[in-house]
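Dear Dr. V.,

Thank you for agreeing to look over these. As mentioned in my earlier message, I'm a first-year student in the group and I'm still getting used to reading structure tokens, so any feedback on how I've presented them would be very welcome. I ran two proteins. I've put each sequence directly above its structure. The first is here:
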Amino acid sequence: MTPSNDPPSAPSATSSSSESSFFAERDEVLALIDGLSPAGSNSESKSESKSKSKSKPEPPSSSAASPLDGAPLAPPPSVVPRDDSDADADAALARLRAILDKYLECPTLLDPSLETLVRRTCDPARETVRKLFRRSLSSEEVEGDDDGGGEAAADRDDDDDDDDDDDDDAIDRELESLMRRLSAIYALCKVRGRKAVQRLLPHEVDDLEPVLAALRWFGWIERADRLCPGGRPGGGGGRSGGRGRGRAPSATIRAFRTRREARRERAEAKAWESVYSLLTWLGIASLVPFDLTTIDSSLERRGCGSGNGGIGNNNNSDGGNDNSEEGIDEAIATTPAPTTLVHSIVSATASHLSDHGSSRDAAASCLASLLSRPDLERSELEGFVGWSAEVLRAFRTSGSGATDEERGAPSAAASRWILPTPREAPSTFSVMGVLRAVASIFKTGHRSSLLSTDERVRGIEVLWEEAILLSEGPSARGSMTLRKLAAKLFARIGCAHLPPRVAAWRYERGKRSLVENLRRGGGGDGCAAEEGAASTLTSGSNPEANGGSGRDFDDEPSEADRLFPVPDQVEDATDQLLRHLADPATVVRWSAAKGIGRITERLPAICADDVLDAVLDLFADPDRDGAWHGACLALAELARRGLLLPARLDEVVPVVVRAIGYDVRRGRHSVGAHVRDAACYVCWAFARAYSAEALRPHVRELSAALVLTSLFDREVNCRRAAGAAFQECVGRQGADNFKHGITILTTADYYSLGNRTEAYLTAALEVARFEEYRVPIVRHLSDVKLVHWDAEVRSLASRSLARISKLDPSYVAARVLPELLDRCFHDDLAARHGSLLGVAETTLAFGEAGLVVGRGGGALDDETSSSIAELVPSIEKARLYRGRGGEIVRYAACRAIECLSLARVPLTVRQQVRLLDSVDACLAHPNEDIQKSAARALHALLTNYFPVGSKGPSSRLQARVLDKYVAIVRIEDNPAVSPSPPEATRGFSLALGHLPAKLLAPSSHVLDSVLACLCDASKKESLVGGEGDAETRRNAIASLVNVCKTVGIDNGASSIAEAELYPIQRLTKKQTDRVFDSLLAAMEDYNTDRRGDVGSWSRIAAMGGLEALATLANEASTSFPHSSGQNDPCSASSRKEVSAPPFEKRLGFLASDMLAKAHRISLQKNGECHTAFFDEQICRLILAALLKQLSEKLDSVRCKAGECLERLLTSDGPRLPYVPYRTVLLHALGLNGRGKNWADPALTFPMLMKAVNIDDFTEPILSGIVVSVGGLTESVSKSSSSCLFEWINGIRTAKATPMMLRMGEVFLGLFHQNKRNGRVLLPLLSTLDKLLSHGYIDELLCANDGAFIRNLMTCLTSEANGCSDVKRVLAVVGVSLNLLQPHLESVMPIMRADVLPFIMVMLLNSYPRVRRYTAEQLYAKLVEDGNMLFDSHSLREANQLLLSVVWHKEHDPRGQLTEARNRIAKLLNIPLTYDQYGARIEKKGRSRSTLKDEFESYSSLINNA
């Protein structure tokens, strides 16, 4: 029945309004639904007026009545233009889809408005369907009259010819509108679900036959679109001709499909969506509470003598068979047209069981709804079940080579089937549809009807056998969906053979209200008698095992309820489901687990125990991860349904705990995340299923396992799943069972568990503070995570273990450390690496806590300390660095040296030297991570050991460390040190920056040698082994900065206390300036190799160094610097800007120690104290270098430059002085204290161009942006080009000629500074080409009588002469040709005198490609602007020569190219020198004929290649 239209009461309206507020677009969606039908689509008024009087002319209408099933009409046009209303309706549908798709993650927000949406969508669709159906019936009556009317009928046809076009248009509009509304219904089903929408669809008696007719129409259209996408389908046979499938649709539907073909790809509504919606609609409409024979209109028409009436038409003469369909489709296509409404629905719906999309599921549900009716279960169900078994048999035996005898003959009842036996092998999609339909029937049908007769039982047995053979055969192995549907079918049929009642023996917890749990304090039994909860036990168990209180039944279940004969089909079904629990596909295992739960729910207790035992047997093989996963899912289903009794928890809980930690290594990875996730689901089910008393004996195991998984699992989904299960346990079981549950949940929440580092290092430490979890956490980290296959997990586990070890150092020292020390020599690489890291980090933690021997009551005994001290030498003695994975062990050894040094583990001198040798060996390793780890270990080792006296380090120590390192870095090629000199140089240059101050600066001479070594190594032209090495330069720059930070700058305030320990010489003014110069020089490192711009590594390191050194120099300066004296127009206070330390800091300077003051005075007398380490010039150079890098093309370089600039300009501790136009610069770069994404070119370049007008920064910014404009990266080039062109346009508008001249000077300066440097010149030439071609620098070309043109041509000529880079020469030619601007008459003589002769020279370039390119571009230039430059007659002949001469000849022995070039120059009146006239083309390089043997050298092979 239709839903009531009565308005809701006031309270419900208020509630609905409140809930609807979550659906923000509700009003817009309703408006879009109303807009799905274009204006004028309703033609009923015109149809009625035409039926009253045809003689009276009427204005044309957008639609008119037309028969849908009448005689064929005249062929319609192939293309029908779409008007604006159709486009608006399609746009409305597209917008509707977009809005609804946003609610896919939370579809229940639509529920308050769902009924309104469905009603607003379906009401117009229902009216359209009914109207079209009435027309089809009336057209059949007209067709019957025409057959016997003779001349009268012919006259009537002649009268209707004028209305055919209007009728076609009207039908098109109505069908298009209907398709859009059906597509809107599909969109709602996709978001909210088919079942939720289906119950709201109209389902009156009058809807059944119209919906069926519409399904036939759109089914044929969808099939035609799929089979014949390019045109009309052949034969006229289709999916839904007539009532079934064999009859062709009416000519009107075929004409609509043909007219729609041209716009089908652009149409928003799809035919298959209409089919899906109509099948869903038909499924609810077929449940009308009346006998279907009483509403079958075809029976009434046949009773009146109509020969071919309506839906039940049995005439098959007007349709052919579609031979292109296979399997079940062809079988249905050849069946005679059905004669009843039921047969029509079954045939039309079954034809969609072979669809490839979601309409297959809708068809299966529709069939299940129809065949589950009480009036059809006995008459039609047997035939469909038998037909389904035959389809499965045909598919199973197809392609297997089986004979006809093996395949078997169709059933004797086949003659009574609605659907015929398939003649060919059905497709996989057909079998999927059949399996889903049968499973849905057994789900919704009544058991008494499904198994009521022996014949029906035999039919189900046949279907059962075919399903088993199909699932076990090769046909289902390649289809996950087939196996899933088979498992679903096994469960449904198995349940059908069991009594339809829930077993009385199952465990019920009773009330599961959280409020009740809190009110009872979280404890107590949840299955008390007053709660009415049944909790009886299996045979032989006692009530105490079920939570302490069994249920006192007034009448105990009878013996028949406890034990009854179980059919063999149930055993077979259970066996199949248990086999599917180990299926490779997760969805199959999940379906089988639910089937196990449904069947076990109806079994006797003793049989349920057998099922549980079979499930537990799946855990026997640890290598079958699929079986473990399926078994966990089955246990969860049994627990949820109360089928896993508390008496069996002693067996189940240990297995579940093992599953929570399941992780099987497979090669370089492991499997088991899905098993752990399913095990957490089992624990979640336990928390909801059992009372606190029943689960209390197992709380300790479960809580520890869940906490460990939530904190330390590698996968984020498993950590969060364990956290959710633990939360459920705390909420359901109460805080008395799960100790500290609320605190743990607060610490280890959803977000903290999402970050692995946060979970290991922060949440784990907080949880370990509780004694109940501390030891399990420590044992899990040491025994499991430190031997994990993932190196990152081992590293995190070692750091987490170190932090937790401080909570119980005695246990870790006595029980954990000895095991880890023994495991450091394990054969397994992961165990060896993780244990070494664990020892290192734990030792460091003990050292930080003061627990090492000799530091006051240490927790480590002498034996353990000695083992730790000898650990690294023992590993080296065992040669554990060798072999696969030795690098990570070497890295861990360096970390161990660093940690034991920081912990001050007692070491003898011999042990110290031995560790230093180990570090030196790692410094020369080619792995960069090992070098960095060794450098950190070196710093810790030399800082905490190797003491020096008041006179500084001994000569032996100085020679062993610093002198050795400096010598290695200085020597370009030193094979005696390392077989790979570049690696040794890299490592030791990095090590110099990690030396302590006592070795770096015992005297000014030593410090000078270190700085000189690093400055030389950082130069861009430095060589290592005869070649440049980018890593060495980068490491040298980083070490320079570290040395400055370690030593500091001598501002006369050095601490005398440090001087008493050992002498430290700090940086002087001269040394500081030298470091500044080296860093600024490194900013110009643009070296490249096969890895790209490796010089960017040095530039990035130098930018960080400049920032750090500028801060140090500024802090060390004791003067009060002022600004540069330039006025800042944006700030009046910028005229004399003071940048001084804070007042408190200045007071500290005045109150410093008198000894330090005396020392400073003595230094001043000797002229050694320089208080101005940071001046105006250095500030300008630093800012200019950073701004240049900010305009570069590399994202990483821009990002680093922007971050450094932002910190320098916004820092207040102290404020950076000498910044020119500080306020303007801050405003231009938008430095407001918020971080920016400086790597984004669309954000960076517009801000940068605002600062280009500052004189001090114009040249560096333009120099950098030129490289970006001419770069190859599209995003960078596009953003920089638009900003540069906009800035130049602004200059031209303001007529700022000086700025334009300054830009020209920058361009010319780049040519002079980067001769033969293709990295800069190619982008520069590309930028000039863009500027010249668009006319952006015309004013620059005309300024100073063309001085820029002359200077530029000088640069271009110098660059082209002898250049071997063809790309660069081609770019030079392009720029020179673009200099020919005929509209600039003032500089035309300069162009003739300088540009044209250069072009003539390039016509005889030694490279054929250059000559051809020059000729082509010159011809194009002459065609475009030649009339403004030269005489027309001479121009034509010159063009002819340019086209006719083959300019790319390899040789020109006769001088033909020279003659042609000279002729062109003469025609165009281009002056050439005597040498240029006589120039000939000479081939570069040595001829191959000069080689005695073509294979005499390797270079000859390269040249010939």
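The second protein is here, in the same arrangement:
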Amino acid sequence: MCLTSRSPSPIPDEDSQHDKQRLKEWSSTAVQDQLKHDLLPHLDENGKALAVVRQPSLPPAKIPFRFRPSPATIVKVNNLPRYATREDVMVAVAEVLHTSLSESPPSVFKKTIGLVNFDVLMEMQYSTAQNKGHAFILLPFAFFGHRLQTTRVLMEGKPLEFRPVPGFELTSSKRLLLQKTPYQDPKIRLAYVEKISALTQYALRLRQIQLGTLQKNPHRCFVAEWSKDIVEQIGSFRFDPSKQTFRVSYEGHDILTRHIIAVKIASVKKIYRGWEYGNPFFVFLLEWTPAFEEEAAGQRFADVPKRDLEDIRERLTCLDDSHYPSAPYAFALRITPQDDTDIDGLLQQFRQAGLPIPEDTSSQGQRETAAQYQLRQIQFVSKRIYTTAVLDRFRRWVSAKEFVLAFQLELLVRNSIVDPATILQLADRIEKELSDKQTASERSDIVRQWAALIREHGAPKGVILSDQKRLIELLHRAKEENEKLLSKAALRREKAGKQKKVTWLGNELLPRIFDSSAFLCHHITITPTAIHLEGPFPVLSNRVLRRYPHHPDHFVRVHFTDEEHHQYRWDRETNGHAFVNSYVGGILKNGFMVAGRHFEFLAYSFGALKEHTVWFVTPFSIAAAGTSMPVTVNAQVIREKLGRFDKVINSPSLYGARLSQAFSATYPSLAIELDEIRHIDEVMDNDSQVNVLSDGCAPCSSQLAKEILEKLYTTKRLPDVGDEDYDPTQFVPKAFQIRIGGSKGMIYVDPTLKGRVLCLRPSMNKFDAPDSLDIEIANIPRASTMYLNRPLVMVLEDLNVHLSTFMTLQQNVMDETLQSTNNVGRFRMLLAQLKIGQRFNVHYVLGALKDLSFGFRDDCTPDSPLLLDDYWFYGMIQSATWVVFRQIKYQARIRVPDSWTLVGVLDEHKMLGSGEVMVHIQDEDHPYGYFLKGPIMICRSPVVHPGDVQIVTAVVPEDGSPLDIEKLSNCVVFSAQGKSIASCLGGGDLDGDLFHVSEYKKFIEQVQANKFRPADYTPGEKKKIDRDCTIADVADFVTEYINSDVLGLVSTTHLVIADQNMDGVGCGKCMQLAALHSQAVDYAKTGVPVPHRSIPHYEFPAKPDWKADEVADASAGDFYQSTRALGNLYRRVKAADIDELEIPRPTRSTREVELAITDELLISVQEWVKEIPDPTQEDLTSIEMLYEQYKFELKRMTTLHALHETKPLTEMEVMMGTITQKSSQQKLRKQLQARMHIHTSQLVGSVLNALLPNEENVENLNDALLRVWYTWCWVTERPYEREDYPAHVGEADKRKEFGARSFGMIVLAAIFKIMDRLTKRPTDVEAVSGDLEMVEDFEVALE
């Protein structure tokens, strides 16, 4: 092949009328206008992409290109060599477009689109390898069609002929695909296609299929629990590359069905290969259970149209009756090929598919000893363990135990740690080891620790330990560790009693629950095949659980997921809906057995439903009111006692939503009398008298607000450790999000109300519960920072906010973040904005150290002893910066200056005019607060419709007016006149919705607020039935919700289409998706789902690069470089830069830093404790006990809240409340972090409760200060994590033993807190709202 450039015919003199007309046609239809029509997005004069598509500017007067042939996006190429392939044509065309074009087109093309992408459609002759002599070239821009027609191309000595195809143009979706997706070398693409084709076409005939367990006893053995010998039927091993899966299948006895074992390639931890009796075998060690399916035996994908491939496979819980008992437990897979003729080919396919390299277990002959071979080999055992008889015996044995113990014993089997037969054989030894323990809690703690030791020292996940000697050794070790902690706990309790400290809850280790805001909850995850057990660990409490405080073990949280513990997602071929209806629906209606108890469906919280999590309960007995007669409490009794639901009893979704109010995570405050409640009317829209302006909110008196706050503060057993810079006489919350009886919403102070008054409006009342008068707090408003997010960036960009504005904001945040690493004050601000390290009071401790003149590199000289520059403080800095940069790249979460996220309330006094709001900000920088004034931008997440962003006027109230007196700090006060602004912001209301307000000048100047009217969606009709619904109807709704929960899909599709379409969020598809989004948000209440088929498809298959998650390759062919703001923001932060942030390495050792802190603290301590005697042995023992118990629970948390059980969290991650491991599951990370926040809050609270006195007199405070000082000195003497550090490891890189540094942070907080009390520094009420933020964090994570 060779290329020559054919000189174009010159255009004749422009005086010729004909040629003038031709030039006019050319300039209007060819290069200039055609480029303006085709090119997405448009370019500015510098060749850079404009952020928003606007009216095209007039074409230049002089046309840069002068060619006769007409432009086209479809070009037919004739005269092809007979055996030329599609790849041959692509190589020839690419050389034209990528070589010749680079010399002449404007530089804007090279800057914007790089190598031109295109496609080739080629028709081959039937049953031959010959083409039909022609092909079609599909081009992104018409100009390139013109270029092909003016270039001579030779293939095999024959010149190719390029001609436009009259009357045909590319569809917009295909053109956009070519414009946005990167060009791929046809050779590379061919290699990839051939690889996928080879994997797809590969099929290995099988002789035998087995499912079993891989056990360690003490050597490896495979125990087959289910086996299928393939004699007359067909068994095969095939890859499905499109789903990253391989499938092992066999025909059923009737030869009409095919059973399938579908294994995710990512689940394969190891592969073993070898020979048994001359037959090759492969054993796959899996991390989670495979999927079991059934389909018609004659079905072949290639035989049917794509539209007929839906629901061709049925999901199964097991393969057949013989497989049923072992299906949840035995999921190691063994296959035996029909023969050994293609073993090398199979190994090659393993490599191509990305499977682990198989470990050869066959004998190496004289190259190894018998002992070495014994360690490598896999023995095969045919004896079945998971039989119905064995499992029944195990369940009967477990059922006789107390639930907390039975749960831990059953966890060993359910989670495939130990098999039931082995436990039964060890039953006597287990009972003997546990017999001398006084409580079931102590015995359960031993078994729980036993399970952890098995995983850590016995067998990795996926391998069952059946070595009885080793099991008993580990059980005895768990018992010894537990006894050591218990003996220390007893000494501490005795000493606490002498010091008149509060008695601990129960005879346990360090109490995991220390106040009524949380309780220890057992968790159960139900997958299509198995039931997995977790916990117990702390979760936030609710009204129902507080009503039955002595029965926490009777309530469990149940999570429905797939095998990977992700939400159900079905591919097109699997009839997943029918499976969920029968399987999940059956469990919801019939309940299940765990640890000898039958649990029945109770209800769900609104946020948890979004994660497919519900509450189950097992019946228990309580004494009847006023008598000692026992009364049985079951799910039905609990629901009936919540109130009357007559208003919603014919709507299953609404009935479930109203029940969920009682299960929302809240903080208890005070009770109110019935005569102190006033029922007041709604405030209506003056124009229509139909629209409610006061939806979900009402005023309360100043006295009631003050009492609520005092109750919250005085009932917190965790003493306030918040930021002490606030003045409580100035900062007092004036609004609360509450639950009371059947009502919920926002209450806020009205200074005109006297006494103790709570007002409620009809919109706040959801059901009748007149006997429940406890006010529960769900949130306290605070001035939270406003952050951008991806939907908001997309909408603002289409509202005229410039790309440079976003890039400047991003750069400022990155610069400020890196600058904060050198200054303690700025770093504390960063921690407050990110809300990390809160549970360990890192922000507070750093502030106290700053007061002692400690600092980072900008605060101190390099040789200063007050420099906090060891590995621990370096780790804090690294964690915080990692969070910022990771959020910027993968979430576009960028802080906006002069902007806040606030709760909305109503102007009860009608002082604000239509379109006006009042905002009073009070924060650390402005303790007395200030009013916003003038135009501000306001919106509410999620922003979907371009009308969801508005510009309103912020006004300052008149002096002495009710709004000026109370100010309602950190709230958006909406006008009670005109149209509801809140409802214009994505259908918001005032029952606790959060609104973003911004006076950032560039947003105010650039946002074209009137470009789109606010969306006005008619509220959907609620799905009702013609009778009173039962809990079975609610169960049906839950299963339907799991099947039809498409809110995330709608949101993602909206963003991707907005990126792909030139009209952005204003395009027709995005407007349609905005309406569907509103319907999907309301689905949990209305019961009306969004049909999957109503969701528009992408404009083209490829996704924008910003859609690539942390573990995906954004440069792969599945992604294109987005030219929208999100794409530019995403690419500006490199993943490698996040992992290797340029933070100076630490220069000081831990001992140097701790010694410096000790020296400075000693001066402060001696101001109150004049003489510091040496600690007694009793003091040291008590300190050691507390530390050991803390470390024990901290270690447990590192695996409990990790993304993967085999990759535990670090001590720093737990302290900062972050999970740094890369993952494609952002939602899962948020859920685990929220769960960890609750757990750490209770753990830290328990330690502080043990360190700090309850009585505030000076004598007690001095004694407590001395004890805490002893504790600090003791913990600084803890050894390094290892004694044999290599010589090349410097002092600055040596680390303390696990738990010592985080425990030291708690001790420092206690020291500073006591000294603050002694100096009578004011107490910060923000500590209460900070604690309540756990409620908000948990619900937000679920949403």
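From my reading of the second output: The first strand starts at residue 3 and ends at 5. The radius of gyration is 34 Å. Does that match how you would interpret it?

Kind regards,
E.
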